[in-house]
Amino acid sequence: MSTAIAVTSADMALPAQDERTVPAVVLPDLDRRPLEETLDGVQALIDHHGHVVVVCSRAAPGGVARRLHTIRSLLESDRIALFRPDLPPLGLAVLARQLRQLASCDLGPGVLASAARLLTHYIHSGAVLGSVARLDHVPVGLKAHAKSWVPGSQFGVVAHPEPQLVRLDPGATLTGPDFGTWMLLAKGRLQSDWVGTTLAPAWHVQGLHEVPLPAESATWWGTGKLVEFCTYLPDLSVLYQLVASVRRGVCHWCGIDVIGDRCVFCSAVPPVHESPAPTGFG
Predict the structure, then answer these.
(1) Which residues on neighbouring strands pair with residue 230, listed in sequence order?
(2) d(CA 239, CA 233)
(3) How many CA atoms lie within 13 A of 23 on its CB side?
(4) In the chain, at which end, N or C, are there fewer CB atoms within 10 A of the end residue's CB?
C-alpha cells in the first residue's frame, strides 16, 4: 500500500514533477458536503491506502479544518495525519507534491508524514504585493504600511523560512536559499515581472515554471494584487536522501516508524522517564 497524499482543493494538486509522482487525492468542499459523504470518502481512502496524509492551508475556510478534525475523531483513526504548516498556499502545494514524490519510495507512512516537517525547512516562499496593508503573516512596519497607500508601490516579501519585506525600489534584494533550487511563480492581479527578471537570477534558480495562482493565496497574503513565488528541491533522489539521513524511531503508542519527536498520526510524544529516587541510609 502507498500512503495517500490528500489536499483540500484541486489547485493545490500541482502537476507531477516526474513519472513516479503519485496523484494527489483531492478532498473538495469539505465544509459544504454532507458529513456522511466525507466520512465515507476518507474511510475508503484508509481502506485502500492504509494511511492518509492531509495537507491543508491555514488560509482554507475555517469549516474545512473543523471538518477534518471531526472526520478524524468520528473515525477514531490513528491512520489520518493532518498537516497545516504556516506556509503560503503555493509553498504548501509544492510540499504536497514533494510528499507525492516520496510516496513512491520505500518509506513507511510515519516516516513519510514526518518528512513534511523536515522538507519545510528547504522551501522559500514569498510574493510581490501591491499592498501590505492587510498582510498579517509577516511583520510590517509603519513606513511600509504608509507606503502601501502610495499608488504604484510594490513590495517584495518572503514569509518562510525567515520573514523579509522590502519596497521594490532599484537595488532592492531579498535573501534566498544558499543551495540549488527551482522556482515556481503564480500570477494574480498584479502586473510585475520582477520575480522572473530580477529575483530568479539573483537566487541562481536552475529552473523557472509558472502555475495558476491557488485560490487561497489572496486570503493568505491579504490582497489579490500579487505574484506568488516559491523555491524548492525538485529531484526525488535529493528528497529521499534528506529523509533517509535522519535518525528514525518507533512510536511507543502506535508502533510505526517516525522521524522527529512526535508521531504525526497518533500525536504521541516519547515518554519522559524520571530518574529513580536515590536510595541509601543516612
Answers:
(1) 125, 184
(2) 7
(3) 5
(4) C
Q: How far apart are CA 80 and CA 30, in angstroms?
A: 15
State the amino acid at position 5 in one-letter form.
I
Give the Cβ contact number of residue 65 at 10 Å.
19
Paired residues of 250 in beta bridges? 257
Residue pLDDT, tens place only, 214-235: 999 999 999 999 999 999 999 9
Work out the pLDDT band at 275, boundaries 50, 70, 90: very low
In sequence order, the 6+-apart residues with CB closer than 8 A to the CB of 216 are: 9, 57, 59, 60, 89
Grid cell listed for 70 = 471531526
Residue bearing cell 490528500: 6
What residue ranges do the domains of the chain occupy?
A: 4-108, 124-232
What pTM did the predictor assign?
0.90
